[in-house]
Structure formats: structure tokens, C-alpha cells
Amino acid sequence: MARTTDGNGTPVPQRLLATATRLFAEQGYDRTSVQEIVEAAGVTKGALYHYFGSKEDLLQEVYARVLRLQQERLDAFAGADAPVDQRLRDAAADVVVTTIENLDDASIFFRSMHHLSPEKNKQVRAERRRYHERFRALIEEGQAEGVFSTATPADLVVDYHFGSVHHLSTWYRPDGPLSPQQVAEHLADLLLRALRA
Amino acid sequence: MARTTDGNGTPVPQRLLATATRLFAEQGYDRTSVQEIVEAAGVTKGALYHYFGSKEDLLQEVYARVLRLQQERLDAFAGADAPVDQRLRDAAADVVVTTIENLDDASIFFRSMHHLSPEKNKQVRAERRRYHERFRALIEEGQAEGVFSTATPADLVVDYHFGSVHHLSTWYRPDGPLSPQQVAEHLADLLLRALRA
DNA sequence: CCGCACATACCGACTGGTTAGTCTGTCCCT
DNA sequence: AGGGACAGACTAACCAGTCGGTATGTGCGG
């Protein structure tokens, strides 16, 4: 633990990850050089390769973190003690809010996933599927109860909603007229209205 | 018009554009080298730089083509002689079908737009906004007529729908269970159901 | 109807610049 | 004195774009 915080409060690995996240989101993964990352983080290549095996590992860490967070939150909302339509609405709104609050991670996630090597990509996809499936189960539960329409396959509904979540990083601006909560309310509303039986 | 079709039916410029589109979609813009493109197209760098000013021009051409196509189709559907909900449904479904039929263009469009230089990016965004506004006008028309709910701002509804269109390139597989038309019907349905007053 | 001038359509070696990752060394803490 | 935490020069591989060259066709004066 020698120079780990070296002139700055946050430890080097976290600082590198945060810097890389910002730069990846701003310029894209390929356009961001390792040199740029270490300079912006105030260290050198030696430090980066001391903590991370490769540039790609950095990218994977971004994914791992965001996936962990979202899965935890979804599980909490989906497993709550409330009617299924309320639970779905809460979960749908929450993923919008947390996505907006981490827009950098989101744009990296959706724009740079294909930069990962096949094996790491597979790993991320598997995690992603778990999330997708939990969400789908919620919709199917409501359909079975007769609360939601069965006109559209649950799978497609999930993709419909996540399409809009995905899209947030393209159009949402923090200085725009809508707060994250307002956007979340609207999008959850649209989903529930589309689903009502 | 010397060797323009050189052993192949299609002229060199189109062949280069088609090859580049495929490779950009498969590997991303940055991961695709000019050398790779010309080899796959069966020509050399000399030919590519004879017809295109830069690698970026190739990318911009992909955008220009897809934007032109979609704008034309939207204008046709939006300006048809039918009730507003029917026109919106048709337009919404059509953009899904044409997006699926040109999935390569779509994934490039949504994943590589930030690779364009600021000025070209601005140009593409302006075109994109025209499209967005035409679609929004359709929704506002329905809202004014009382056919669509005014609970959600029209802008947000447009982004909601295009989020799902955008997302298609992530999950849609031609060998999956749903035909492009079926997906289009479902997605248009969801939109109309979310909007009904 | 010939042959010369010019243009278009390419070829492919080369250049200048960039990049991820390596490796040897140094400093400091324990 | 030994090891974790870095520093920074170095390397090997690429890559976009250039440039001088060649081949084929086209218009035109004689």
C-alpha cells in the first residue's frame, strides 16, 4: 500500500477505472489510448498494468460493476411484497433512474460490448440474460394472473422496455427539462399502459 | 468505365460500400482496416481512395443512404390518406421492418455514429432530427384530436419507440421464431396501446 | 481509319505516426 | 532485506493515407 493514493484521495485502481469509464464514454473504447487513461489518472502505464491485465480487462470491469448493481436492484424490487403490476412498475422505473445516474456506464455498455473478446462477451451476455429473465418472469407472472395482456410475448416486451432504457444514453441530457425520476415515471407508465389487459 | 466491374457484376464503388458496411457491422468501424475492406472487395487501396476521400466518407455514405430511405418512407406513410392512428401504426411498423431488413446499417448507425468528425456528425444529427420531428408531429396530431393520450410528452414517446427500434440490432436474429413483420406488428401494437386515450 | 493526347480506373510499395503491452529499475514501507 | 507499488523507456505491430506508375478506353485531327 505504498503510493496507492499518491497525492489524491482515491486509490489508484478505482481512479483508473473511473477515468477509463469517463474516457470510454466520451470517445469510445478504441479511440481511447492507454496512454491517455494513465495521464488523465495521473499515473503511468506501469501502474495500470500492475492492477489490470489488459485494456480489455478495464472494459470488462465496467460491465461487471454495472451488471452487479442492476441485478441486485432488480432482485430487490421484483421480490418485494406488492401486487405484480406495482413491482413491475417500480423495477421498470428504477432501472431508468439508475441508468440515467450512470449514463457513462450505459453508453459504454451498449456501444462497446462488441469490443470484448468472444469469451468475455459470452460471460457478459450470460449475466445480461439472467437479468432479462428475471424481468421477463415478472411480466409472465402478471400475464398468468390476468393483470397484463398476453397479446405480446413477454420476451418482446422486455426488449421493448430495454430498448428505451438503452436509448437513454443517446438523447437524455442532465440539463434537459425532465428529471431522471420524471423520465422514469413516464417510461414506466408507457410500459404499464401498453401491458394492461 | 474501364475495369469498373472487373470480374464481378457490381461496380467497384458499390462493392466497396457493401463490403465496408458488412465489415463495419461485424467488427466495428475502428477494428476494420482499410486494407481489410479492399481485400474483401477484391481491389486495392488505390481503388478505394479513387472513389472515396477517406475511410470516414465510407461511413458517412452508409448513414446518408439509410437516412434517405427512412425519411422517404416515413413521409409516405405519414402523409397518407387515413386516420392518424392508422398512419402512426403503419409508420411505426414500417420502420421496424426496414430496420430489420437492413440490420447491418442499423447497428453501424447506432454504434458508430460517434466515430464521425464533429461536422459530419452534426449533419447526420440534423437529418435525424427531421425524421424525429416528422414522427413527433404525427403523435401530436393524434393527441390534439383526442385519439392519443396526452399523459406522456410526444418527444418522449418518439424516443420510447425508437429505443426499441434501435435495440433490434442487439437482439433480433433472422433465424429466430418471429418474422420481421410479426415483430413490427407487435411493436406497433405496444406503441398504440401505450398511447390510446 | 489511323495514331496521338488525354482521362479514367486502378495498382501496390512506402511513410509517418500511433498503439498495446513489456521490462528493467527505483522507491518506500514493513 | 524483501516485496509491493509504481516509473518510463522501449518494441513490435499496425494502419490511414500518399504517390508514382500502368493499363485501358475515348475523342479528334489528319
From TrEMBL, chains A, B:
The keyword Cytoplasm does not apply. InterPro entries: DNA-bd_HTH_TetR-type_CS, Homeodomain-like_sf, HTH-type_TetR-like_transc_reg, HTH_TetR, KstR2_TetR_C, Tet_transcr_reg_TetR-rel_C_sf. Keywords: DNA-binding, Repressor, Transcription, Transcription regulation. The keyword Protein biosynthesis does not apply. Residues 33-52 bind DNA. It comes from the Bacteria. Pfam families: TetR_C_24 (PF17932), TetR_N (PF00440). Residues 10-70 form the HTH tetR-type domain. This is TetR/AcrR family transcriptional regulator. It comes from Streptomyces gobitricini.
